[in-house]
Amino acid sequence: MERPPTPPSDPAQTHAVPQRARTASVTVDEQGAVTGWSDGARLLLGYPPAEILGQPAARLLAEPDLDAWRKAATGPRWSGTVALRHRDGHRLDRDVLVHRRSTGERAGGTQWQVVSAVTGPAAIAAGQALGEWAFQQSPCVSAVFDEELRLARASVASQRTLSLAEGMMRGLRLTDIAPYEGSAEAEASMRRVLDGAGPQEIRLHLDPADPERTWHARLMPLTDSGGRVRAVALTAHADTSQQLVRRRMLLLGDAGVRIGTSSDVQRTARELTEVAVPEFADVCAVDLLDAPPRADELARGHPQQPDAPPRDGVALRRAAVRSLPDGPPLPQPSGEVLCCPPWSPSGRCLAEGRGTVYRGGDEVVSRWEREDPRAAGWIRESRTHSLLAVPLRVGDVTFGVALFGRNRRTEPFDVDDLWLGEQLAARTATSIESAARAQRQHTTTMTLQRSLLPRTLPEQAALDIASRYLPSVSQAGVGGDWFDVIPLSGTRVALVVGDVVGHGMRAAATMGRVRTAVRTLADVDMPPDELLSHLDDLVVHLSAEEAGADNAAEAAGGVGTTCLYSVYDPVTRRLCAARAGHPPPAVVTAGTVRFLDIPAGPPLGLGGLPFESYETELPEGSLIALYTDGLLEPREHDIDDALATMFAALGRPAETLDTVCDRVLTSMLTHRPDDDIALLVARTRALHADRVATWELPFDLAAVAEARKLATEQLAEWQLEEAAAFITELIVSEMVTNAFRYGRPPVRLRLIHDDHTLTCEVFDSSNTAPHMRRAHTYDEGGRGLLLIGQLTRRWGTRHGGTGKTVWAEQHLTED
Q1: Strands across the sheet with 151-154, in order?
Q2: Contact in structure between 207 and 180 (CB atoms under 8 Å)
Q3: pTM metric for this prediction
């Protein structure tokens, strides 16, 4: 095999290095002998290494300068011009740089390294071109102004900062180019430099996109070969210390205002991205855990070593993402579920519970790019060079991860940026925790309120009823709106709707107490006005009980609660109602919609003010609508428009009451309500004369037998079974006998038969109410009411303006 040719030894044939530049390097030991000789030294002085190594270095000097060598020996470095002797004998005056170094071979060992540049004509020309390029392309803001203070040259960084091309600025003065604060003073300083005052330090505002940004500038005189100042050079750099602190504080202040404006977690995540981009990062993503784990649970679920193989990973849902408008879209859009391995930036962030800065080329980022093609493609396309991963964490609870990236800004994230990212994440996590806590409280309040509202409407023959309840979506929480349907004696039914002041758990609890009180008072058959008076006293007592509460707003105890209580009697088809500051009910008869003219009355809890009842007769099939004020308070229109809309919805015919409810809500609401809404719609029925029998009895005990006979005949006409007739005879006998013995005339007997109930009523003009007592063995009486209580479903007494009515109900079984 032929050997390759030997490279030529002629220096002129090796490379064109004499045309360019090389470094001549010579090493001299303590004895002054040459111990090192570079190829550049050979080109400069002509000695091959074999001729000069080990020889005295003084042989290379045309004029040995012992003082220069002494200076070199006393300091770590010396520079100056030295007269050298070429191998062919001619003299070379060269600028040299001498470094003193310790050899480390023995204590006190020293050697000197002498270097000089080997420069040819082409290298000098190339150096001049490079200098021109350096000025044009320098990342520093620099410019040259002539003797008339007009711009002659501007670096690329200056053009970028001022958003102007050099051609547009050439010939203009600084006050024309940047008419901002400090420009006039800068020109005055330039004039002083031209006048020989030397370098000057000034401050400028140069960036039109950021007029508050301060630049620190230095003005230097440029002189010709004769020493005359012919121009001024300006170099500037951003005053970043105070500026960055100010920007970070402004960003944190902005975050405090803009992050956490609602209880919606998705919106809170989106607010973080809107604050971060573009002020802090070029791209931002917020990924949330579906169920926030505790720190110890999270640590057990992820390997502590970031290099461990991805086993389970952690599932995160991308809640929000934002990037610059003209940037490439992120590979994982909002709403997508991500599986993050433990070694990934998000996985490590969650496992370690702290933030980390990553740069392009980091081991974690490189592995991420290798194992996630979508992420790798996006990183390459967007040229993201710096990444910041910060946990969204409050205490020992982690909610997710915030990722910040930079691809347009040249500066990477640093330690101060990590601190700022942690502050933004902490603010977001606190808002998410508050939202989650508010959601839990809202759910608890809703559960309590739902448990207090009627789950099903009771069976009764007086009314067809449908209802709706819509909780609010406001941050204040669920309110205290409620409704109830209470069957009363004599087939009558009470319709109740109310609104407890306030929102949240306390309002719901107060609503429960008020509703319980209404049911208790309704069971003793109080008229509507009297019932509201007793309810008013109760709310006053509730307020007094809570008067010592720390929060005065919560100590209201229901003061300001409104209520509407109405009673419908299907026998007389009359409605009696009273209201305490509540909106009046709407009634639809024969296609005409109107409000009932019920006196308003004061809200509950004020104490001592009267309530008035209103009574009217309603045709069979009339529609009654009771509601809370949330129905009339939509944002889109005023109260008159709301009333007109509600009247139109109620006035249209509908097959079912559920259709009426849905139509009212659909027409009134265009969004979820800001306040709770309770809606109760009823259609009246009537018990006609063939279902009611009334007799006036003579005030004589002998009439008891006649009363039993009348009742038996009526039950036979109604075709009721014999068992009902037998029990009814006993009930009529006992109740009529008590009326004759303890009451006063007149005495009336009434039987009411609806579909499933038989009611027996006995009226007398005495106000003395009967009561059940335990009869002793030899007592002749005292067992009547006990017997009635055993034979009937329920019994009781109701008082009127004069007298009382004792009643008892039997449940009729179907044939």
Answers
A1: 151-154, 141-145, 229-238, 215-223, 200-204
A2: no
A3: 0.54
